[in-house]
Amino acid sequence: MVLSIKPAGAEGRRLRRAVTIAAIACFAGVTCRAWLAARAPWATAERHRVEADSLACIAALFLGALDVASPDDAKRFSEFGFKTTSGLDHRYPLRARLWQVVHAWPSARKQALLEYAKSHLGYATEFAAFALEGFGPAPRFVPTGRAPSMTFYAPQTASDAETLAAHLRWIHGEGGVGAFVQGHWGSWKALDPDDAELIATKDAVLRYLRWNNQRPLVEFDAMVDPFLAPVTGFGVDLPNRRMLLLLGPTLTDDDRRVLIAHEFTHQPLEAIISANQQVVRSIDRASCLFDGVDPHGYEGWPNFLRENLCRAVSYRVAGVPDRDTGFALEGDLGRELRNHEANASVPFDQFMVETLDTLARARCRASVSP
Ligand SMILES: [Zn+2]
């Protein structure tokens, strides 16, 4: 396991082919009408309120573990996106207040949580997804048997859902986190993006990708999880082909636009790739670009490439300068995207094929032929 935080999303590690089938259709030149009108009907503040309970409880579990962790353990947790007190300053008030709740717990309880956290350590984004995908609502947190993200990343953790459920029940009830969410829901809810912000970003991404895919996109919604590491996110795979984009905290408008654009881009990008075998083959041909790079925890070249592309696209869509977050292809893809913007007739799948072959020819020793 590579020990690095993955800013702007762990979800790139997974193939989302299974969820690109959709309930609403986006056809050539036309954006999703259901989305233009409003959020999907299931995306409501009431639903977010239910999800907030689960997100706060899973965050509190790891905060409890951190409260009694050794410096070495705390450093390791931090590398997985679970932040220590150093990240809990005034800029993240909900995190700091949740920490105060957790700090008052009996130390034996926190030791038990530390044992769980050490033996099941995974990325904070994945655990947030697990809390929503794998359990019914608070206060019972009944395991559903469905946990696509965690099953993919950590099948042992997914299969041990009852242990986690027991911790979540205590945390929500006796641990006081249910009451905490009740008391802070107003300020949490105010962090969530509104319809206009989401729709504008979605339209901008689809325009940028020159979306003409006949495959419908999955229905989706977005909410802020203020307990994730800053500028991280995850696409949570809810039942009935619904996607909830979890957005970590952001301090600037630029970061927020980048994060929303990034998390949304994963969906249409996956549809574009999976619809065209030429793109799939070009990704295979360019696999040498993965040799020797820091994968930042992303498993396999295709997933790593997707993450790099989402990053590069999100900077262009959000209208911010290209960023160097340590992902090997961000810079190259950013430059290629700028050239692509000037060629209005080239669809995005063709851009991908040409760009990957060009980069592979330039960077790899072995010759690359289409
Ligand atoms: Zn991502």
Model description:
It is a single chain. The chain has helices at 33-37, 45-67, 71-79, 93-103, 107-119, 124-133, 148-153, 155-159, 161-172, 177-189, 195-208, 253-274, 277-285, 301-318, 330-341, 348-363, and strands spanning 219-224, 233-238, 242-247. A hairpin with a 3-residue loop joins strand 2 (233-238) and strand 3. Residues 1-38 have low confidence and may be disordered. It has a domain at 2-6 and 8-199 and 220-248. It contains 16 helices and three strands. Helix 2 packs across helix 6. The protein is 54% helix and 5% strand. It has a three-stranded mixed beta sheet, with helices on both faces. It is mainly α. Zinc ion (ZN) binds next to helix 12 and helix 14.
Could you name the key traits of this structure?
binds zinc ion; mainly alpha; 370 residues; globular; disordered N terminus
Helical/strand content category: mainly alpha
How many DSSP-defined strands?
A: 3
Cα-atom radius of gyration:
20 Å
How many helices in DSSP terms? 16
Mean residue pLDDT = 85
Q: What is the straight-line distance between the termini?
A: 33 Å
* Biggest β-sheet strands, sense, barrel: 3 strands, mixed
Unreliable stretches? 1-38
Shape: globular
Q: Main sheet: which strands, in order across?
A: 1-3-2
Q: What is bound: which ligands?
A: zinc ion
Order of helices and strands: HHHHHHHHHHHEEEHHHHH
Strand content: under 5%
Determine the fraction of residues in helical runs and give it as a percent range: 40-55%
